[in-house]
Amino acid sequence: MHIVFQRGALVSDMRSPELCLIAQEQVRQGGWTILRRHFLGYWREQPCYALEIDELDQLDPMQFQTGNLYQILGRVDEQLFALAGRASQLLDWERDHRFCGRCGNEMQVDMDERAMRCDPCGTINYPRIAPCIIVLVTRGEELLLARNANFPRPMYSTLAGFVEAGETAEETLVREVREEVGVEVCNVKYFQSQSWPFPNQLMLGYFAEYAGGDIVCDEAEIADARWFHYSDLPMIPPVSSISGQLIQHYIEHLTQSI
Ligand SMILES: [Zn+2]
Predict the structure, then answer these.
(1) What's the gap in Å between 99 CA and the centre of ligand 1?
(2) 101 C-alpha vs ligand 1 centroid, how far in Å?
(3) Residue 98 Cα, ligand 1 centroid: separation in angstroms?
């Protein structure tokens, strides 16, 4: 099976319930030119590959559409989404590391180690993953949720930010919460992580308890942030995202302990 990208866009088969899985037969019938190919793993015991096809290849508009990974999030099996996310990240990584950043020579793909190598100078580049923290700040029955200034929809979510060079995840968490909404937190507890291929984040999910301060939003990033009682929440992210899972998990914990 294949997960196919063209000009960086995911190719979906509208006739298939699995949307982003495209059979070998269809790749052949379409006469598509394969520019890049990576082994991804197995899907229901069948080997699965990421393919980047040529931008001039014709796709039958009655069967295929191109789009981004968001369009299949929550619509396909979680494991399949993870494979599609891996596909997108590996193809982007190979495209962006064709030349050595140190000496400028062409790099070679090392399929065994999944690395890009520069033989003349010995530089090795591995796929890039950007760690981010994502945190649900709570105060008893209330949840601190914020609306991002760049969200197109009136959705309130947990706070998140990139880990900077030299920082621990816990330090990032404290800094981000302070910068974005001006409050202090304590009792930081790790929840779980999620690969988030938009484009290459690893989201590290945490719970933290409110420790002090009034909400003061960083206007560049946050349009609005408030405390919401768990029984009266605004529009929140779906449980296909770790943000939705943090919220759901906390509410389950609250309602079980009442
Ligand atoms: Zn080099």
Answers:
(1) 8
(2) 7
(3) 11
Pick from 28, 99, 17: nearest CA to 2: 28
**In what helix (H) or strand (E) does residue 256 lie, and over which residues does it extend?**
helix 242-257
Could you identify the residue written with the tokens 């079980």? 256
Q: What is the pLDDT of residues 198-213, one digit of tens each?
A: 999 999 999 999 999 9
Which tens digit of pLDDT belongs to each residue from 17-26? Answer: 888 999 999 9
d(CA 159, CA 64): 36
pTM of this prediction exceeds 0.85: yes
pLDDT at 257 over 80: no
Q: Is the distance from CB of 27 to CB of 86 less than 8 angstroms?
A: no
pLDDT at 113: 87
Q: How far is the CA of 86 from the centre of ligand 1 (A)?
A: 26
Average pLDDT taken over every residue of the chain:
94
Spacing, Cα 96 to ligand 1 middle (Å): 14
Interval between CA 107 and ligand 1 midpoint (Å): 7
State in Å: Cα 122 to ligand 1 middle.
6
- What type of residue sits at position 250? Y
Radius of gyration of the chain (CA): 21
Average pLDDT (217-234) is 95
Which residues is 47 bridged to in the sheet? 42
Distance 105 CA to ligand 1 centre (A): 5
